């Protein structure tokens, strides 16, 4: 979902990551469903990418509270709706 919305927005991965204030490899992991974004990162992505209302709600709902980089949920995103790119 993230990659499709990013492409619809006309953004390349590196540009999107820079505008959202995240590392490009992290964006790649988010788009592949290997990581789940924190609420803060999800909001940063929403500020940059033209998500539909439904996509935005789905991304924010799937995001994790800002609990620190070592939170187990931030490492892997099984069955996450965010993983569908």
Structural features:
434 Repressor (Amino-terminal Domain), mainly alpha, globular, 85 residues
Characterization of the model:
The protein is mainly alpha-helical. It has one domain (2-65): lambda repressor-like DNA-binding domains (434 Repressor (Amino-terminal Domain), Orthogonal Bundle), CATH 1.10.260. 52% of the residues lie in helices and 0% in strands. It is built from 5 helices and no strands. Helix 2 packs across helix 4. The longest helix has 10 residues, at 39-48. It starts with a helix and ends in a 23-residue tail after the last helix. The mean pLDDT is 87.
Query: Main sheet, how many strands, which sense, barrel?
Result: none
Q: Helical segment tally?
A: 5
- How many angstroms does the end-to-end distance come to? 4 Å
Total count of domains? 1
Beta-strand portion reads under 5%
Could you estimate the helical fraction of the residues in percent? 40-55%
Tell me, rounded to a whole number, the average pLDDT.
Answer: 87
Structural class: mainly alpha
CATH superfamily: lambda repressor-like DNA-binding domains
Q: Supply the CATH architecture.
A: Orthogonal Bundle
Q: How would you describe the shape? A: globular
Radius of gyration: 11 Å
Oligomerization: single chain
